[in-house]
Each structure stands twice: as structure tokens, then as C-alpha cells.
Amino acid sequence: MNSIKNILIIMTLLTFSVACEKEKDNLDKVSNASGPSNVSATFDITQDNTGEVTITPTANGATYFMVLFGDDAYATPEKYGINESITHTYAEGVYTFQLTAVGISGKTAQFEQELEITFLPPQNLTVTIDQDVTNPFFVSVTASAQYAVIMDVYFGEEQNEDPIHAMPDSTVTHTYQNPGEYIITVIAKSGGSGTASISDTINISEANDPVNLPINFESFTVNYAFTDFGGVTSAVIDNPDPTGINTSSKVAESFKSEGAETWGGTFLTLENPIDFTVNNNFKVKVWSPKLNAMVKLKVENLTNADIWYEVDQFTTTSNDWEEIVYDFSAISLEEEYQKVVIFFDFGNNGDGSSYYFDDIQLVPGNLPTDMPIEDFEGTPPDFTSFGNIADIEIVANPDQSGVNTTANAAKMFKTSGSETWAGAFWELSSPMDLDNYSKIACKTWSATSGIVIKLKIENSDASVTHEVDITNTSANAWEDLAYDFSDAPAADYVRIVIFFDFGNAGNDATYYFDEFSLTN
Predict the structure, then answer these.
(1) How many other C-beta atoms are found inside a 10 Å radius of the C-beta of residue 324?
(2) CA angle, 132 then 136 then 138, to 5°
(3) Residue 405's CB: how many other CB atoms inside 10 A?
(4) Per-residue pLDDT tens digits for 255-301
(5) DSSP string of 317-373?
(6) In this predicted structure, what is the pLDDT of residue 18?
(7) What pairs with residue 66 in β-bridges?
């Protein structure tokens, strides 16, 4: 009997212990939760000379809000729920509204807005409408007016649409879903009954630019007009799996419907015939729900379907992006090919599966493993140093051993007290081929390990840049480093920037770098 009691006591203690551990875990999760973000509020005002303002606070990760309206210097913050609209009556004047979002962990984030309350009718309304150059479906509106408290903006895409309430001089944006003509209306309101309004018509044109290689489906002006056949439906959509080798925004989807033909597929017609004289391999990123599914790539003449060439490849993974290479080196250069055709799971009837493809590009057939950039053995490049370090020198290799036995190397002396971001750059005579190579390899030498060696690439005016950090692992020896630039945005990169011990001020340390090349 006693043994049974002892067992029950032990089981109770174990249950209590497990419960305590779970409670501790829950408390740890709460205390480690991040604070609120994107804290903001929208405002509206009644036009009846009462000064009643309706405020709707918003935030990510908030559990409640604390509010100071700004019209009482001795007021204490008032608490409001996350889905609660707030009304407050102001007299004429200028006030600073303060909103504090409180998260589950007690962490906070704040938002402030100046409110100028007046009952005079708005005057001198001006409205600026900007249509994005890259994406003409994306429109921004900025409005200002004397005595205006709130701007109501209507983008005209829907009947009886609710306005967007905006503060004077702020910018609101909208993305139209379909081409057409739309009337944008801005109404300036104060606390009185008077208003001022301006309406203007904007034209959202259809995408009508022709398709050319490479094809990445990111353009809003290119008409990706798929021609589908055999029970396949294709369209440009948001990337359903922006991971791995393909984090781009847009991709093409081919939906092979239930019972679709074994040869069902889709094609795009290019503006001009494909030039296979130099580049004769295709690269295509594909996503398939099936392993070992045939993905056929074919090119055809614009008007004669009997002139074609095709290559078969098979997926080597499932539910993940992979890049497939198609060898078209045996294609006849006497013919012209202007259609690019792709078939998924060729040879099998459709079963309602979706397949995705992206980044169709023509590349050289026999790429070398490495493409040299600079080895400092010939005429040295023109370096530019910055951050108060010494000029870069080309010197005899101080340690001709290990992975680097070349004669010369570049020397960087990071002067004591120089900036944490000090470094140097040089420019190349032509852009780097990051379409065919994903990494930049180089050799570095440092007397200390565990420092950040940052490599950055820029286009000619530094309007497009991308940088990668690597922490070195060797001291007093040459080390091979390979920087992955596969996520770099598309640009003509002609400038290489290097930083040693990034994040720390200079301490009279000497570093060496050498043997830059493109590699995969």
C-alpha cells in the first residue's frame, strides 16, 4: 500500500515539475517577444464645427494602446484596445497626438502626429499625382491646402469606395489591379462644413512591351502573352516559394489541369529571333511538385512549326527551386527561332498540378569554372581609399605559401583611428558576369582571425549596390574566401569595394588581398 502511495506522490511531483517547466517556457517566450512595429493611426474629422476627431490606431504585435491627445498638459495616458476607434473633441489649435503601442512582453513603440484643428474652409488646394516609372499600376498622391485638417483621397477603382484619410502633405499610395482610365479625387476637409476638391484622370495602360531574353517576369510593362495548349493554363503570379536560389517577386505558373494532354505546354513569342552564335545553352529555374518529371524546352520558328529544336531534362528535386541547363549547341544556325516553348511532366496526362518557372536566359555553352577579375600581376588598377586609411599599394607577396604563391598582392594599411567603415575600391573595364557566375572569390591575408572582411559591388554611379560579409578563420596565412552574390539585384556591376575588420576603427594593422575571380 505504501509503495502505491509513493508512486502516486512521485507521479504528482513529476506532473507538477512538467507544468512548472511549461509555465517557465511560456514566460520566457513572452519576455523574449519582440515589441510592436509599424505603429500608426488614421484620422477623420466631423464637419460640424465641433472639432470631433475619429482616430483609428494600428500596429503589428500590439496588445493595447496608450493615448495622449495633446490638449491637456496634465493628462495621463488613456488605454484603448487594439480594434477600438477613438473619438476626441478638440478646440481650434495645434496639438501633438501621442500613441504608444504596448506588446505582450511590455515592450513599446511610439507614434506622434501634429494636428492643426481649424473650422475655416480649406483654401489653395494643390494635388500631386505620381505614376511609378517601373510599375505604372502603382500611383502615389500628395496633397496640401491651407486650413485643411484631413485629406480624403479616392482612387476611383471601385464604386462607392471608402476614401483613404490622409494628413496634409503626406503621401498615400494605391496599386491598380486592371488597366483603364480612373478619376482620382482629393477632398480637403477642415472642422467646418467647407471643403475644397480636385479631380484628375489617370490612365493605367496595358503592358505592351515585347518579350526578350533574359525573361524574369518582373517587368510591369512587358506583355508576357502566353500561348497555352493541351489543357495547360499559364500566368505570371507572385512567387509561391521565394526561397533558396529564387527569391524574386514574380514567376510564371503552368497549371496542368486534370486530364490535360501528355504534350500540354505553353510558349512565349520573342520580339526577335534568338541569336545562338555565341550563347547556346539555356538556363531555367523551375519548381515542380514531382521528382524526376520531364521538363522539355523547345524553340520554334515564328511561322513554320516544322522548324524546331528541343532538349529534355528531368527535375532532380521536388517542392523546391532548382536551375536546369539545356544544351542547344547542336542547333542549326541556318534557321531562325523566335518561340520558347516549355512542357512540364511531358509524357504524362495532367493531374491538376502546378509547375513554376523563372529566369530563362541564354548563356555560353562551355563556361570556365573560374573567370579571373584581377590578380595584381600586370598594370595595377586605380584604387580609391576612404575612411582615413593609407593608399592601397601593390607589393611583393609577403607570404608566398599555402593557397597563394603569386608574385604580387595588394596591401591595405588600416591606419590607427581610421573609420570603422574604412576601405578601398577600384573599377573594372567591363561589368562582371553575374548572370553566369554567382560568387566572387578572392584570397586574403590577416594577422588576426575572426574579423569581418566585407566585399561590396556597385554599378558605375553606386545607385545599385550589394554587399556580403565573411568572418575570416585564418591568421598569418592566406585564406580563400568566396562571397555569394546570387541575391544581388540585376545591374552592371563595375566597382569592387573591400573592407577589412569592418565595424572596428583602424589600429595600424596591415592586410593583403589578391586573386579576384568569378566562380560558381
Answers:
(1) 18
(2) 65
(3) 10
(4) 999 999 999 999 999 999 999 988 899 999 999 999 999 999 999 99
(5) SSSSEEEEEEE-TTS-TTS---EEEEEESTTS---SEEEEEEEEEEEESS--SEEEE
(6) 46
(7) 79, 100
